[in-house]
Amino acid sequence: MLRGAEILFSGRVQGVGFRYTAKQLSRRFSVWGTIENLPDRRVRLLIEGEFSEIEGFLEALLENNHGTVVDTERIGKPYRGEFSGFEIIG
């Protein structure tokens, strides 16, 4: 079953290659979405895919950025099929 999510990452997540790492990792998983820096120094990820693919992607992203992410806030979103790839915004 396809799902969607919005995840906000806090910590030292801007200016350290966090979004680039996310884009690279997205190629290993069947996930689609966007990632962008927010003015409040957080990073917002909008993502869609199978639950297990999203979870695997998030696990890999956090593992690859160990020590930079202090907190995550996850908001469930319905799957809308609005993404055709994975893009960095901004």
Short summary:
The chain has 90 residues and is α+β, with helices and mostly antiparallel strands.
What does this protein structure show overall?
- This protein has 90 residues and is an alpha+beta fold.
- The protein has one domain: Alpha-Beta Plaits (2-Layer Sandwich).
- 26% of the residues lie in helices and 42% in strands.
- Strands 4-1-3-2-5 form a five-stranded mixed sheet, with helices on one face.
- Helix 1 (18-26) crosses helix 2.
- The model has no long low-confidence stretch (mean pLDDT 96).
Give descriptors for this structure:
Alpha-Beta Plaits, alpha+beta, 5 strands, 42% strand, 90 residues, 2 helices
CATH architecture: 2-Layer Sandwich
How does the overall form come out from the CA principal axes?
A: globular
Mean pLDDT: 96
Strand content: 35-45%
Number of domains: 1
Major sheet attributes: 5 strands, mixed
Low-confidence stretches: none
DSSP summary, beta strand count: 5
Radius of gyration: 12 Å
Number of helices: 2
CATH class: Alpha Beta
Tell me the series of helices and strands, N- to C-terminal: EHEEHEE
The amount of helix comes to: 25-40%
Measured between the Cα atoms of the first and last residue, the distance is 30 Å
With strands numbered from the N-terminus, the spatial order across the biggest sheet is 4-1-3-2-5
The third-level CATH topology is Alpha-Beta Plaits
Structural class: alpha+beta
